[in-house]
Amino acid sequence: MCGIVGVGSFVMQGLYSSDLETFKQLLWMDALRGMDGTGAFRVAKDGSIEYRKIAGNPVDFLRAGGGGKKNKKSIEDWLLAAVTQNDKILIGHNRLASVGAKTTDNAHPFMRGHITLVHNGRIENVIALTKQCKKEPTYEVDSDGLACLLSEFNPVDVLHEIRGAFALVWWDLKKKTLNLYRNKERPLSFFYSEGFKQYIFCSEAPMLEWMLKRTNRQSPFAKEVEPYNLVSINLEGDVVNKVKIKEPVLVSPVIHQQHWCGEDEYVGYENCEQYRDWE
């Protein structure tokens, strides 16, 4: 279990200081869903991306200082720049490690090509799928492998093929769209306000509803992102694409649960490949 949070603005001025405070408070609350890694990425008004991440909880993240040529600013100052530079979107992630060491590299987000991704859940057939890449990527975390797939293949085709539990949020630099997608195994709640010219989302609806009431937003009721519906939002806050992905038929969940060893391999059968995709 991991957690995803985000705020977006579709006004010319971009994010306000109140949006940044909302984001930080959501990130703190979301630590209940994972404290092994914390990260965030900013989407500028031109669609470009910056990200920071650490192996640690949100308190450690927000206290982290700058260092090196690439990250001279502290993370607190880096986040503040999202307001002063009129950024449009802030996305955060709290990791509960399931696969891969508890390192900064394995924290979210993952950037591969034009895709920057955060993920809650587990992609169980990612190794089989990434073997189809032109050059098979090296990765330790399934989410990183998924980012590779989304950067190389049509996302609709990838979403049709993946199996497991997932709520996904990614930025597509080529199309300049924020994309949200989940299946029934993982939650993702969304609030869209024409009045405030903004949207807010996070993994848990009660968390989001509490934040909306606390900050006096209109209509303090969050909606779940509909399972198996890919929603794409542009920098102006318009839903520019909504694609229904066919829900997979899982034929052997009991066998899968009994023989899943937790390291992207099935054990206990001579021909385990037949169970890899549950089809």
From the structure above, extract its key features:
279 residues, alpha+beta, 7-stranded antiparallel beta sheet, 6-stranded antiparallel beta sheet, 13 strands, globular
Please characterize this protein's 3D structure.
This protein has helices spanning 17-29, 58-63, 75-84, 126-130, 142-152, 155-161, 205-214, 253-259, and strands at residues 3-9, 37-43, 49-54, 89-95, 110-112, 115-123, 164-172, 177-182, 189-193, 198-202, 223-224, 229-234, 239-244. By secondary structure, the protein is of the alpha+beta class. A 7-stranded antiparallel sheet has the order 3-2-4-1-10-9-11. A 6-stranded antiparallel sheet has the order 5-6-7-8-12-13. Strand 9 and strand 10 form a beta hairpin. The longest helix has 13 residues, at 17-29. It starts with a strand and ends in a 20-residue tail after the last helix.
Q: Strand order, main sheet: write it out.
A: 3-2-4-1-10-9-11
Count the E strands. Answer: 13
Q: Report the mean per-residue pLDDT as an integer.
A: 86
Low-confidence stretches: 252-279
How would you describe the shape?
A: globular
**Share of β-strand residues:** 25-35%
**How would a textbook summarize the main sheet?**
7 strands, antiparallel
Helix-strand string: EHEEHHEEEHHHEEEEHEEEH
State Rg.
18 Å
Going by helix content, strand content and strand pairing, the class is alpha+beta
Proportion of helical residues: 10-25%
User: What's the helix count?
Assistant: 8
C-alpha termini separation: 25 Å
